[in-house]
Design a protein that fits this description.
Strand content: under 5%
Helix content: over 70%
Largest sheet: 2 strands, antiparallel
Shape: elongated
Distance between the termini: 87 Å
Strand order of the largest sheet: 1-2
Structural class: mainly alpha
Length: 751
């Protein structure tokens, strides 16, 4: 089948060539007789053979060259007006009437070249007309050869410096020639499949124009050519075009436009050979020479060159971290010449430079091995330093990177020091509140990601983090201390699992010693002040100490929490926010379900809490039924006092009833029944836990009471209360349907 296809193509080519030769013979006779009509007729028939779609590009080229040779003779005939007696203007209009578009456009290009030669019309107008009309042929092969013919016949008529067409009265300039060639290049590049040798002619002609000096090449020609090279996305096309650019334009041009050229390299599908062999050494040397030669080069120009070289290096030599560090070192050397960097454009380029390794490797750990990386960051102003620090943290978050050694944590926190402490000349009070919160929350999430399964290494990480964050000041500590505390608690659990201690740099890593460290750290929060947060952290540590069976330490943390509550939080009872006091009390209650606490310690703390006086009835009610849990610790035998639980619940019920009556007296309505529903849930909890003092009759009475209250006209409608009660009733029904002992227990309750 392959042989048959080759034979068929040879046959079609032979037929096409025969037709071209036959029509060319008739055209020659017409030319000899000065018969314009027949010359146009047979030339159009000859050119119609180029409309074929049966030939490969290689075979089509043979057919095209036969027709091209004949068109040169036709062009000579068109130039001699005495032979055909028609002005070139009329001739240009006449060939518009050719039947098919492809022959018509070839004839137009031929007459157009004569038209420009006579100067009867501005060359720029004719060129623009021809390059636009050639868009009528979109077949890749036919379109490429047509545009190749157009640029070939017009090459010696282009306006250029020193050419006659540069000084025509209509004002055609070399820029018009550049625009024509580039536009034709763009259109050919769009049509290009594999016929790269045709497209390259445009670049060759561009390089021969005297008007394309260094400035024109750097500012106009190269960017537009590279844009098309990148956008074509074709491996073969990109390889060839980049090679053409290097070959046809002078080396001086490449050296002075290195930044633009290198910036395009990372976007190529494949790099040309000249960029694959000893590329870094050659380009690095070239950039160094450019910077040394131009003493007055702005800093931004030098840094931009380094950015381009780094981008190229990461694309071509991603495994050579020494190359990357070398580029950063060269940048540091250049920046050292300026005591203070004030150029915002240069600052932006430094951010791009520092971001490139992060984006390439997707791993901050790799960047931490670059010795010159922090040295470059030191040249940023305070604001940009924080921006770069945020980029680093976001990269870690995005890739879920784990920084697992104290040495790397030390380097990392040096990089982000702009976020964890006030830099020279700035204070946290000067920052935007929303931006500040976002920054500190990012630091907190970062601390949570610092981990090592080895307890010894994790201890060193904790010491390193603590050393840095404790200098953060009162506005930062509430964000950064909590994650550090929980990391330390993680270490304590790890030590429990290993059933041993670890020797650290400062103190032995025993749970007791770590708790002492935590106590000192949390105390810093209480003087910031951030008392509520400190209280919660004290209670978390109390729970952890309890899990470690360190009752004295647990009791000490509870004592610290209560002292903090009495000295800082309870004062708010008479000033700003009563809800804060209530929330703090509820937090303390929730942490009191700890097994190893002795009965003496437990009830001492309970009695201290029960003395708290709350002004609002709903607050009193919730505090009282919360205290019921103090007398029923589910996992500890001997600390289940059902009678005292019932007393708390009954007292809470009386307070709730009093609250309803007060609301009715003050506002004429009883308010929502939420308190009753909350108390019902406490009854259900202790009923299910087996408190013998709580009976099904009590629950039944409370359900009926709530139902009556909700049906009363004096009760304020509250959808949330209704939904809460409905959910509670569904739970009772669910328990009844369980069967077994639970079902029997709930069976007497009617809902």
């Amino acid at each position: 089948m392959l042989l048959d296809g080759i034979e068929d193509e040879e046959k079609w080519l032979a037929e096409g060539i025969a037709s071209v030769q036959q029509n060319a013979l008739f055209m020659h006779r017409a030319l000899d007789a000065n018969n314009l009509r027949d010359a146009l007729k047979y030339s159009a028939q000859m050119l119609s053979e180029l409309r074929t779609s049966k030939l490969s590009p290689h075979k089509y080229y043979e057919l095209y060259m036969r027709a091209f040779d004949e068109l040169r003779k036709l062009e000579m005939f068109f130039k001699d007006e005495s032979r055909h007696g028609v002005s070139v203007v009329d001739l240009y209009e006449l060939v518009h009437h050719a039947g098919n578009i492809l022959p018509r456009l070839y004839l137009l290009c031929t007459v157009g070249s004569v038209y420009m030669k006579t100067k009867e019309a501005p060359p720029k107008d004719v060129l623009k007309d021809l390059v636009e009309m050639c868009r009528g042929v979109q077949h890749p092969v036919r379109g490429l050869f047509l545009r190749s013919y157009l640029v070939q016949v017009s090459r010696d008529k282009l306006p250029d410096i020193g050419a006659d067409y540069e000084r025509d009265r209509e004002g055609s300039t070399v820029m018009d020639a550049i625009e024509f060639v580039l536009q034709n290049f763009v259109e050919m590049n769009k049509l290009w499949v594999r016929l790269h040798h045709q497209v390259g002619k445009n670049l060759h002609i561009l390089s021969q124009l005297d008007g394309v000096d260094l400035e024109v090449y750097r500012e106009n020609v190269l960017p537009r050519v590279l844009e098309q090279v990148v956008n074509c996305k074709d491996e073969l096309a990109q390889y060839y075009l980049m090679d053409c650019i290097i070959q046809v334009f002078p080396d001086e041009y490449h050296l002075q436009s290195l930044e633009t050229l290198l910036a395009a390299c990372p976007h190529l599908q494949v790099l040309p050979e000249f960029l694959q062999v000893e590329a870094f050494a050659k380009l690095s040397s070239a950039i160094g020479k450019v910077i040394e030669a131009q003493v007055d080069m702005p800093v931004v120009g030098a840094i931009t060159l380094y950015v381009s070289l780094l981008t190229f290096t990461l694309r071509v030599h991603p495994d050579r971290l020494d190359y990357v560090d070398q580029i950063l070192g060269a940048c540091v050397k250049k920046l050292a010449e300026k005591p203070r960097l004030e150029d915002k454009r240069a600052t932006k380029q430094i951010v791009v430079l520092l971001s490139a390794p992060l984006e390439k490797y997707n791993d901050i750990v790799t960047a931490l091995t670059l010795s010159n990386y922090p040295r470059v960051m030191d040249h940023l102003d305070n604001e940009t330093n924080k921006v770069m620090a945020m980029v680093i943290i976001q990269t870690i978050m995005k890739n879920s990177s784990c920084i697992s050694t104290a040495d790397k944590v030390e380097v990392l926190f040096e990089l982000i020091k702009g976020l964890i402490k006030d830099l020279d000349g700035t204070t946290a009070d000067e920052l935007d509140e929303e931006d500040f919160k976002e920054e500190q929350n990012s630091v907190a999430r970062l601390i949570n990601m610092l981990y090592n399964e080895n307890p010894e290494e994790l201890l060193q990480i904790i010491y390193t983090v603590r050393k840095h964050i404790m200098n953060g000041g009162p506005t930062r500590l509430p964000f950064t201390v909590p994650p550090l505390v929980f990391s330390a608690l993680t270490l304590i659990r790890c030590l429990q699992a290993h059933d041993g201690d670890v020797v650290g740099e400062e103190v032995p890593a025993t749970p007791k010693a770590i708790f002492q460290l935590l106590n000192q750290t949390i105390e810093a929060l209480s003087v910031v002040p951030s008392p509520e947060l400190a209280l919660k952290l004290f209670l978390q540590c109390a729970e952890a100490a309890n899990d470690c069976e360190l009752e004295p330490i647990a009791y000490e943390f509870f004592t610290q929490a209560y002292v903090l509550y009495e000295e800082e939080i309870a004062v708010i009872n008479y000033s700003l926010d009563r809800s804060l006091q209530l929330n703090s009390e509820s937090t303390i209650h929730g942490e009191w379900f700890l097994n190893p606490l002795s009965a003496e310690d437990f009830f001492f703390l309970g009695n201290q809490d029960s003395k708290a006086q709350l002004l609002k009835k709903p607050d009193q009610c919730r505090a009282v039924f919360a205290c019921s849990h103090l007398f029923w610790v589910d996992d500890q035998d001997g600390d289940k006092d059902g009678e005292r639980v019932l007393l708390c619940l009954k007292r809470a019920l009386r307070i709730a009833n009093a609250a309803q009556q007060m609301a009715n007296a003050a506002r004429g309505s009883s308010g929502p029944v939420t308190l009753f529903v909350e108390i019902l849930n406490k009854y259900l909890y202790f009923f299910e836990k087996g408190n013998p003092q709580i009976t099904s009759n009590m629950i039944q009475d409370l359900v009926e009471l709530i139902t009556e209250e909700m049906q009363s006209d004096s009760v304020t409608a509250d959808p949330a209360s209704y939904a809460f009660f409905a959910s509670t009733l569904r739970y009772i029904r669910f328990q009844k349907q369980k069967g077994g002992s639970i079902g029997e227990k709930f069976e007497p309750i009617t809902v």
